């Protein structure tokens, strides 16, 4: 997030797009509701599904899945044509305005409406609400990123925010809400194929030389490959061994039949986890890891806040902290990692990662600190880009709408989109072990619009078969107006109805994110 969680409650307008916040981020969802109810904030919700936040919205934009760029361009068309944008901010803080303006000129409200299905008047209303707010915050999650145009979607959101001068101010910003605990911290620590810690590029000679000196090794200059690309390479026999930590690709990856075959073709699969997940059940070696309450360390949350976690109980059996397992394995392979405590690791992070340089165990004993924090006296950074962007001027990008990789046709006439439910967490490896949670949400459901259900001869609670070009699953139907005609929604928590057997592995060409949110399916009574 460019801004902080607490600012959401005190902003003038909130634009929530591609985020089912109350179910996926309940604490932040509560702040949105308080902002609306108690402080009069305007709330714009853009989502193909009638999520809970719609009840609190000033306006709801029900765009067709995969049409976010067209919707955002339509809003910007209104803002520019009506002179509602922050002219001074655009002239002094950004570049690329004329090229961007030229592209969005054709995205009139009527043109955008034809693509998105959102009424033209609603696009105009939403544009004015956002542009006329003194400070406006944009919130998004994987409803924006998990598309073959995920990068375009994010750039378009950045365009809208900069166009109205909402980046670098309190209460504004471009605020992606992280989907799992410490996803932010993992990225900060270089768990990406293109960067070292603190987003220092692998391809930078200067950055590489610094890490080579610290670690006493020679490091490659070529970036690695992403998760889906790794499984594709395993399927082709190019990757022979895979070490999986705290991840369950046997439920979370797209096109699961392909993923399972890729894992089976490996010479060696190692899984390090706290529970025996579906992926661990395929492993040659399982390394039992300690959970959060069984180790010391830090988590970095969605607002860039680095917080301490302290060991509360002993780990069971042979389970060890992740860093100890990695260190011991490294020593076995000939490279000693001489850390005595997790604090030793943090000290190395301080020395090699400028944005974390001032975040020490002593300083976060009682209260976490938001990076960037360049030295031991710096208080941390509440919001980013106050006076300038890290690249100097903010880049306004000229983005054209591109349809999803797979659209409905005669054989597969429905669009399926996927997501989570409040009661379960990711692949449900942990949450399904809780009797109370399973009582509230015991199985996967297929949300179908009543008119579609009538055409299919399907009644509520009846099993249906959902098929795509990659596989099929069966689950009970939930007949509801939460989804529009021609669209179904499924969650991906249940292995008995593993929705990722159906999803499209097509990738965004830049970020390499799969298009989980849109695939063509057919639905029939089982």
What does this structure look like?
It is built from 19 helices and 21 strands. It folds into three domains: 5-177, Dimethylsulfoxide Reductase, domain 2, CATH 3.40.228; 183-370, Rossmann fold, CATH 3.40.50; 414-525, Barwin-like endoglucanases, CATH 2.40.40.20. A hairpin with a 6-residue loop joins strand 19 (504-507) and strand 20. With 526 residues, the protein is an alpha/beta fold. The strands form six sheets. The chain has a six-stranded mixed barrel with strand order 14-18-15-17-16-21. Strands 3-2-1-5-6 form a five-stranded parallel β-sheet, sandwiched between helices. Strands 7-8-9 form a three-stranded parallel β-sheet, with no helix packed on it. It is globular and about 65 Å long. The relative contact order is 0.13. Helix content is 31%, strand content 17%.
How helical, in percent, are the residues? 25-40%
Number of distinct helices: 19
General form: globular
> How far is it from the N-terminal to the C-terminal residue, by CA?
44 Å
Main sheet, how many strands, which sense, barrel?
Answer: 6 strands, mixed, barrel
Strand order of the largest sheet: 14-18-15-17-16-21
* pLDDT < 50 stretches: none
Name of the top-level CATH class of the largest domain: Alpha Beta
User: How many β-strand stretches?
Assistant: 21
The CATH architecture of the largest domain comes to 3-Layer(aba) Sandwich
Indicate the mean pLDDT. 95
Structural class, by secondary structure, is: alpha/beta
Taking all Cα atoms into account, the compactness measure Rg is 24 Å
CATH topology of the largest domain: Rossmann fold
Query: Beta-sheet strand percentage?
Result: 15-25%
What is the count of structural domains? Answer: 3
């Amino acid at each position: 997030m460019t801004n902080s969680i607490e600012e959401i409650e005190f902003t003038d307008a909130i634009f929530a797009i591609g985020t089912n916040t109350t179910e996926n981020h309940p604490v932040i969802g509560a702040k949105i509701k308080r902002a609306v109810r108690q402080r009069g904030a305007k709330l714009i919700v853009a989502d193909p599904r009638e999520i809970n936040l719609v009840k609190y919205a000033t306006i709801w934009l029900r765009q067709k899945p995969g049409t976010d760029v067209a919707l955002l361009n339509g809003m910007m068309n209104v803002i520019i044509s009506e002179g509602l944008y922050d002219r001074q901010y655009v002239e002094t803080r950004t570049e690329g305005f004329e090229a961007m303006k030229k592209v969005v000129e054709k995205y009139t409200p009527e043109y955008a409406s034809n693509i998105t299905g959102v009424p033209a008047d609603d696009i105009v209303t939403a544009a004015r609400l956002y542009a006329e707010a003194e400070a406006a915050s944009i919130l998004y999650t994987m409803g924006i990123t998990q598309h073959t145009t995920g990068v375009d979607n994010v750039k378009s959101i950045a365009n809208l925010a900069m166009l109205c001068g909402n980046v670098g101010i309190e209460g504004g910003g471009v605020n992606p809400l992280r989907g799992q605990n410490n996803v932010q911290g993992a990225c900060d620590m270089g768990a990406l194929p293109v960067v070292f810690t603190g987003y220092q590029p692998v391809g930078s000679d200067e950055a590489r030389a610094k890490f080579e000196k610290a670690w006493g090794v020679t490091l490659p200059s070529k970036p690695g490959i992403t998760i889906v690309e790794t499984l594709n390479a395993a399927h082709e026999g190019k990757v022979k061994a895979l070490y999986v930590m705290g991840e369950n690709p046997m439920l979370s990856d797209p096109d699961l039949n392909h993923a399972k075959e890729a894992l089976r073709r490996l010479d060696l699969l190692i899984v390090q986890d706290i529970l025996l997940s579906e992926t661990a059940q395929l492993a040659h070696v399982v390394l039992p890891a300690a959970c959060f309450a069984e180790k010391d360390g830090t988590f970095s949350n969605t607002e860039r806040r680095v917080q301490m976690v302290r060991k509360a109980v002993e780990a069971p059996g042979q389970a060890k902290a992740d860093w100890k397992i990695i260190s011991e394995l490294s020593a076995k392979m000939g490279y000693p990692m001489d850390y005595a405590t997790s604090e030793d690791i943090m000290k190395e992070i301080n020395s090699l990662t400028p944005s974390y340089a001032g975040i020490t165990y002593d300083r976060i004993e009682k209260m976490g600190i938001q990076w960037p924090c360049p030295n031991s006296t710096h208080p941390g950074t509440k919001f980013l880009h106050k006076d300038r962007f890290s690249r100097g001027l903010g880049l306004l990008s000229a983005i054209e709408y591109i349809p999803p990789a797979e659209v409905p046709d005669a054989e597969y006439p429905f669009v399926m989109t996927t997501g989570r439910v409040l009661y379960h967490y990711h692949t449900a490896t942990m949450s399904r072990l809780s009797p109370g949670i399973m009582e509230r949400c015991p199985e996967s459901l297929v949300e179908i619009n009543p008119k579609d259900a009538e055409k299919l001869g399907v009644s509520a609670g009846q099993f249906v078969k959902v098929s795509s070009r990659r596989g099929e699953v069966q689950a009970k139907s939930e007949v509801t107006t939460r989804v529009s005609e021609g669209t179904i929604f499924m969650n991906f928590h249940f292995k008995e109805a593993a929705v990722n057997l159906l999803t499209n592995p097509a990738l965004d060409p830049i970020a390499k994110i799969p298009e989980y949110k849109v695939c063509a399916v057919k639905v029939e009574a089982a």
